[in-house]
Amino acid sequence: MTYHFNTFQIEDDTVFYSSEFSYAFTNLKCFRPGHVLVCPKRVVKYIDELSWVEQKDLVETVQRVAKAMLEFYHLKPSGVTLTLQDGKGAGQSVPHVHYHVIPMIPTEPTSHSKQYYDLVKSGNFGPVESLKP
């Protein structure tokens, strides 16, 4: 499959998770080690341009990636930062809806990134439903 982040073609080997309407990929401009992006497959500038089904899928993908990140990096209680900048005025640099999923790692990892991406791909960290309170 060909993935696009606005006008940029995303290389398949950087996509580590894909659902029906969304995908997650490694970020070329990382804020911190492990920083990834999750976006809808359909290129839209604002989140309200997505259907409810697409929005639900996007958030579920964000949850799946964040949960895997928490487990892989053992981040509780440190956590994961989830950011959506909806429009240029909010700081959106690429006009394609996307979430930043950023691990708040107490000590910077050395070579764990590939293992983390493999964990997300495998789905061996439990279903999204397990995230419900």
From TrEMBL:
One family name in Pfam for this protein = HIT
Which positions does the motif Histidine triad motif occupy?
Answer: 96-100
Single GO MF descriptor: bis(5'-adenosyl)-triphosphatase activity
Q: What is this protein called?
A: Histidine triad domain protein
KW Hydrolase (keyword) present: yes
Q: Which domain of life is it from?
A: Eukaryota
- EC no.? 3.6.1.29
| Keywords, comma-separated and alphabetical | Hydrolase
List, alphabetically, the InterPro entries matched: Bis(5'-adenosyl)-TPase_reg, HIT-like, HIT-like_sf
Residue ranges annotated for the HIT domain, each copy included = 3-111
